[in-house]
Amino acid sequence: MGDTWITDIRHYLDENEDLIQEPGPARRLAEHLCSIIETVTARSHDKVDLGTKVRCRRRPHSRRCEGNIVASFDDVNPSTIIWRCPLCEDNGYIIGWQDTLWNRSNS
Ligand SMILES: [Zn+2]
Predict the structure, then answer these.
(1) Does the pLDDT at position 34 exceed 80?
(2) pTM (2 d.p.)
(3) Residue 30: closest CA among 16, 3, 10
(4) How many CB atoms lie within 10 A of CB 33?
(5) What pLDDT, in 10s, does the model give residues 57-107?
(6) Share of residues in the chain with pLDDT > 90 (%)
(7) How many angstroms is it from 29 CA to the middle of ligand 1?
(8) From ligand 1's centre to the CA of 94, what distance in Å?
């Protein structure tokens, strides 16, 4: 079973609203989540396919998971982005992305 990550992306930004540099694992997690934010916010609202090109970052049994992340706005609360890996069930919620550089939506 995967873990559920609830992430406020603002916690990973520095004073210039760019991603923190350190510590490295936090930086890599933040880059991963920003890729998800970009994909979901850039896609048109009527797009049915929820797949992304973002590769799962988990390494169960020391082997990289082959899954690609599936992500979308939450139906009930569109200010939340929900994501999961269909293979290993790693999953989470991202909040706080609206005013970041990675929000590609027009509205
Ligand atoms: Zn996975």
Answers:
(1) yes
(2) 0.91
(3) 10
(4) 25
(5) 998 889 999 999 999 999 999 999 999 999 999 999 999 999 999 999 875
(6) 82
(7) 14
(8) 17
Ligand 1 center–CA 12 separation, angstroms: 22
| Dist. CA 91 → ligand 1 center (Å) | 9
Q: Which amino acid is at 42?
A: A
Task: Give the CB-side neighbour count of residue 4, counting CA atoms within 13 A.
Answer: 4
Question: Rounded to whole angstroms, what are the CA distances from 102 to 9, 44, 69, 81?
Answer: 10, 15, 17, 13
CA of 15 to the centre of ligand 1 (A): 32
